[in-house]
Write a structure and sequence with these properties.
The chain is mostly helical. The chain has helices at residues 2-7, 17-24, 41-57, 61-74, 83-99, 108-125, 130-146. The longest helix has 18 residues, at 108-125.
């Protein structure tokens, strides 16, 4: 992610790994967030740019995984039976459980559904209008959370 920031000329906002770690710690659901301030607009924009940039780096893999997910659903097969999807789900679930706080124990099925939803979201965020779509989704989410 730091190299993505460098490629996007965001060194002033994300100069190194510690700065990136601090930005990520602003997530209130993340373990050990320790009261980090909320992201300012420039920090949020930087993270959105980095996310979309990294998603674009996987433009072949993401659509292939989503297509495979559609095929599995059409044949009523579990997604984890496909190697590509199974590896992704395992990696997502392991990372989520290591890094995120859990108010209540989140089930494997809930984590799998979240992983697959985010995979589909990444398909849209890796598109040419991905930056705008992700910004709008985040604004919509933050507006709904404040109500």
């Amino acid at each position: 992610m730091v190299s993505a920031a460098t490629n996007l000329n965001l060194e002033s906002r994300v100069p190194e790994r510690v700065a990136l770690w601090r930005l990520r710690q602003s997530n209130p659901l993340r373990k050990g967030q320790g009261g980090r301030k909320k992201l300012d607009v420039e920090e949020a924009q930087s993270l959105v740019l980095i996310i979309c940039y990294v998603a674009k780096q996987h433009q072949e893999l993401i659509p292939r995984a989503v297509s495979l997910l559609e095929q599995m659903a059409a044949t009523n097969r579990e997604p984890h039976h496909a190697a590509l999807l199974g590896d992704y789900i395992d990696a997502f679930c392991n990372t989520y459980q290591q890094r995120m706080e859990e108010d209540g124990k989140i089930s494997t099925d809930e984590l799998t559904n979240l992983a697959l939803k985010l995979l589909i979201d990444l398909l849209f965020y890796s598109s040419p209008n991905g930056y705008r779509r992700l910004c709008l989704a985040l604004i919509d989410r933050s507006t709904n959370m404040e109500i």
